[in-house]
UniProtKB/TrEMBL annotation:
Gene: trpD
Source organism phylogeny: Bacteria, Bacillati, Bacillota, Bacilli, Bacillales
Cofactor note: Binds 2 magnesium ions per monomer.
Organism: Sporosarcina saromensis
Glycosyl transferase family 3 N-terminal domain sequence ranges: 4-66
Residues that bind Mg(2+) 1: 93, 227
Subunit structure: Homodimer.
Coiled-coil intervals, chain numbering: none
Keyword annotations of the record: Amino-acid biosynthesis, Aromatic amino acid biosynthesis, Glycosyltransferase, Magnesium, Metal-binding, Transferase, Tryptophan biosynthesis
Pathway the protein contributes to: Amino-acid biosynthesis; L-tryptophan biosynthesis; L-tryptophan from chorismate: step 2/5
Name of the featured protein: Anthranilate phosphoribosyltransferase
Length: 344
């Protein structure tokens, strides 16, 4: 069936079956669909409202077209969120990735340059001295050597270039805004991810179940953030061995203090990089607390701690002990080494 038929179905407000979405997505990635048809299909899906089954099918096809990152099986975690929450916070999940790695979690973090924020994860990594020119072998080597790697989306998803241009022309969110955290080319048993749609967290957790995650947490933070916030009630769904368990949590419940969202506002890539260094050097305050809250949740999602409160304590120790900062330094050193080899 051609993508035109699927456009008719979604424009009538009907949901696609999993198999139908697989077929439609294959046409997007194979180049069979015209730019006009791709635009109409993505806009039609967005207007109808995407289902968990449609998101899972698209994520499956997109991952199948990614470049492989060859690493041995392990209990990897990605803590990438969907972004697009408009909070203008600093790069919380990127900072938390170093904290998680410092605590012993094997982190394979998917990410991109800025889309809706002043500085995306790879913009701030550049400012920290970590370039985005790694090939997939270098990404894998870094993960094996240091227990952390950064997977630059345009490198691992080369077929997204044309689709990305169409998304930019559409100029509003599409289903691809939801699938980013779901398309890591490293096989993930565990995941901690945030979306800025509290109404969709149960659906998103069911997508992770369809994709084979053993354990994961999906979160929508207070005020619609895609990170856990100090500023009120955060909503979560825990996926554990097939069960989907909703719960909510405030910072105070895990020993942290309330802080207004303005206290974690970010800036340019260079400004955010300076914030990350200060946090990893142990500077206390709302930014530090936000990072240990999110890293603590990541530790719990990975199964390395039995409670979120314990996760927050372990995350705090990862920073105070210097382990998290040393992970940053090791990745920067690796990046400089690769950069020298490229320039020779």
């Amino acid at each position: 069936m051609s993508v035109k038929k699927y456009i008719e179905i979604v424009n009538e407000g009907r949901n696609l079956l999993y198999g139908e979405m697989i077929e439609a997505a294959q046409q997007l990635f194979s180049g069979e669909a015209t730019d006009e048809d791709m635009t109409r299909f993505l806009v039609g899906l967005a207007n109808k409202g995407e289902t968990a089954s449609e998101v899972a099918a698209l994520a499956t096809v997109m991952t199948s077209h990614a470049l492989p990152v060859d690493v041995p099986q392990a209990r990897y975690l990605d803590n990438c969120g969907t972004g697009g929450d408009g909070s203008n916070s600093f790069n919380i999940s990127t900072t938390a990735a170093f904290v998680l790695a410092g605590a012993g979690v094997k982190v394979a973090k998917h990410g991109n340059r800025k889309i809706s924020s002043a500085a995306g994860s790879h913009d701030v990594l550049d400012a920290l001295g970590i370039h985005a020119r790694f090939n997939t072998t270098e990404m894998a080597d870094l993960l094996e050597a240091e227990g952390i790697t950064f997977l630059f989306a345009p490198v691992v998803h080369p077929k997204m270039k044309r689709i990305g241009e169409i998304r930019r022309r559409i100029g509003k969110p599409t289903i691809f805004n939801l699938v980013g955290p779901l398309t890591n080319p490293v096989s993930l048993p565990t995941q901690f991810t945030g979306i800025n749609r509290p109404d969709f967290i149960m659906d998103y957790a069911s997508v992770l179940r369809m994709l084979g995650r053993e354990r994961a947490i999906v979160m929508s933070g207070a005020g619609g953030m895609d990170e856990a916030s100090l500023a009120g009630q955060n909503s979560f769904v825990l996926l554990d061995k097939g069960d989907l368990i909703p719960f909510s949590l405030t910072a105070e419940e895990v020993g942290l203090k309330y802080a207004h969202p303005s206290a974690i506002r970010g800036g340019t890539a260079d400004e955010n990089a300076a914030m990350i260094r200060s946090i990893l050097n142990g500077e206390r305050g709302p930014r530090f607390d936000t990072v240990v809250l999110n890293a603590g949740l990541g530790l719990f999602a990975n199964g390395l701690t039995d409670t979120i409160r314990e996760g927050v304590d372990v995350a705090t120790d990862s920073i105070v002990s210097g382990h998290a900062r040393r992970k940053l330094e090791a990745v920067v050193a690796y990046s400089e080494q690769i950069g020298r080899e490229v320039s020779v």
